[in-house]
Amino acid sequence: MKFEFKRLFNNPRLLIVLIGFFILFIFPTMISPSNSFSKEHMYQELKNQLIAGENSALDLKDIPEANHTYEAVLRSNKALENILNAYDKNSYSLLIESELEYEQLMKDRILSGTLSGLDIGEQTKRIYQLETFQTQNITRIDSFQSTIPAVNRFLRLIEIIPSTIFLIFIVIIFAYIYTSNKKKGSIDILNILPIKVWKVSFNSIFANSSYVIVSLIVSLAISIGVVTTINTLGNLEYPIFYTSFQNIYTHMPAIEFLMKFFILMLLLTFFISLTIYLVNLFSTNFIFIILIFGVLLAFSDYNMLGSAIPDSIIQYLPVGYFNIQDVLLESNRWQSEHILWSNAVLYFSIASLLLLTIISLIVNKRKKL
Fold first, then answer.
1. 3-class state of residue 242 by DSSP
2. For the purposes of burial, counting CB atoms within 10 Å of the CB of 117, is it exposed (0-12), middle (13-18) or buried (19 or more)?
3. H-helix or E-strand spanning residue 234
4. Is 328:163 a contact under the CB 8 Å cutoff?
5. 29-68 as b/e: b if 16+ CB within 10 A
6. 266: confidence class by pLDDT, cuts 50, 70, 90
7. pTM of the entire structure?
8. What's the CA gap between 155 and 329, in Å, rounded?
9. 107-118: pLDDT as tens digits
């Protein structure tokens, strides 16, 4: 094990691992939010809606048959005025209360038939979001805000960068480490050491995996520290909204989402390390290894096979779990109810143990790495 760690730390090229992770974490979080939907823009949009509503009320006022619709429009206009008033007073609590009142009125109008063109499901989701912010006393973070807390910036990072980008970077790292070991003769040295060959193999796997995992954790910690210093940490209970497989619109606290994301990322890192080590026992071709994983990650991200893989099979394939965001938010491309976070943790834990066993059997039989 000492030999493995010494070899790793003596290779200056592997500093790219730490630097690479840091760039992947920090760069998207430092990008300023778009100003295309500024507070002033939102305010003007609301004023335009109010003007349109007032004109609609004037058109309906003298039509007896439209009395019910006329009254509904008046209530909606009053709610819009309350929202604008909340903006003028810069009162967050009043704003959420006014928006909630307005969205509930919109839902009532959809159900009563006095308003068309809006989806009742989407309207219910908007109401649920506002009720969550109100009841849990959580400040909503809007995209047009100039200062966005660290928690929300990292949530945005995970949203805009697919987990497969992180995974392909990890694949390249392990492919380079394991293939370069054989090419540089490090394996030949290990083969002559008076240690059981399976122990040498395990030491190599755990040393290299630990190096990458620690680099990932350290770069993440530094990134969080930098972003928190510039902004604030934010609310760890900030809600992440999603629709479950039971078709229930619900939410997950940010701290739970982030913890689950990085736990699964660490398990995937170890799984990738084992898989590449196993492939490297038979092939030291760097490009070949990258292509294999590139195809697998592409299947996961873009579902190239569509519905060709049934639910009964996809739950037993690693590609079903590579897209971590989809696994956490129950929105995988196969619509499989079995691809859940808990199943992913169990899957990669068992798969890693199986890979360790297979590697042990192979190297023991060959009597060399």
1. strand
2. exposed
3. none
4. no
5. beeebeeeebeeeeeeebeebbeebeebbeebeeeeeeee
6. very high
7. 0.84
8. 13
9. 999 998 888 878
